[in-house]
Amino acid sequence: MKKSAKALLLAGFMAMTASTTAWAAGWQKDGAGWHYQREDGSFLKDGWKWVDGKCYYFTAQGICLTDTTTPDGYTVDKDGAWVVNGVVQTQGTAGQAQSAQRTGQTAGVGVENLVVGTQDSGMPFAVSGLVFTTPAGFGKEASSTGERLYFYNAARTGAIVVRSEALPAAAQNAAYVDAHSEAILDGAMAQIGTPTAKLAKPFPSGTWYFYQYDKAQLGLDGLSYLYARINGGRLQMIAFTGDMNGSSPDQIMTDCVR
């Protein structure tokens, strides 16, 4: 099961040739509020993003929310940084998530502090631009890295793989990627197999493309589900296979991905 689950996300990146333009990355302010511009000229938008070790919530228009409660129920301070009980959370923060219990806010746990075992249920882990809160009954696998996280239930009959990797330098032209992201993802997913279903689905973390694969295609027990998107110059994928302990993949995407 472990080997098959990892193989599920061995999708490569499509090579793209497009010129890039140099921009001065950083924070910018206009009449609407604060924005963050990347080096490729695009702006952060559509949910939570890590910037210099802190987490900020950006609207679909790229506005950073400040001194408020975000649409998914978290608190940001006057500078827009995610806070828990007034304390700014960073990618290196650890130890606070267990007491938060998602009834208030949960702390961002740095990759260097990842815990092994099914006691991880309810704990969030950072992986290159994403925060994934461990679903009930699951634990993080010791082989997880800064760009790939592996989660299994106690019986190891269900697996979740969270992956976020930088696109090749040739693929960093934001306008090209935005215009062709669906085709790029389709090409990457085709390296896994031909999906039996495909949809674009909205979640609190933004829109993801959903791909479904059957047993015959991947050699796994039952159906497998993969959610993918291109976001912030990264190819992000979350795969589910086997027993999800009573939760659907869509529900986990809604509750656990930020």
What does this structure look like?
It is a single chain. The protein is of the alpha+beta class and 258 residues long. The chain is built from five helices and 17 strands. The chain has helices at 2-7, 97-100, 174-190, 215-218, 249-256; strands at 26-30, 33-37, 47-51, 54-58, 68-69, 75-76, 82-84, 87-88, 124-127, 130-133, 138-140, 148-153, 158-166, 197-203, 206-213, 224-231, 234-242. Strand 9 (124-127) and strand 10 form a beta hairpin. The longest helix has 17 residues, at 174-190. It starts with a helix and ends with a helix. Mean pLDDT is 75; it is low at 1-24 and 93-118.
Features of this protein?
258 residues; alpha+beta; four-stranded antiparallel β-sheet; 5 helices; 17 strands; 15% helix; globular; disordered N terminus
- Strands across the major sheet, in which order? 11-12-13-17-16-15-14
- The count of strands amounts to 17
| Morphology | globular
Largest sheet: 7 strands, antiparallel
**What distance lies between the first and last C-alpha atoms, to the nearest angstrom?**
27 Å
Please indicate the percent range of residues in DSSP E strands (runs of 2 or more).
25-35%
Query: Unreliable segments (pLDDT under 50, ≥5 consecutive)?
Result: 1-24, 93-118
- The Rg value, from CA coordinates, equals 18 Å
Give the class from helix and strand content and strand pairing.
alpha+beta
- Report helical residue fraction: 10-25%
Strand and helix order: HEEEEEEEEHEEEEEHEEHEEH
Residue-averaged pLDDT: 75
Question: Helical element count?
Answer: 5
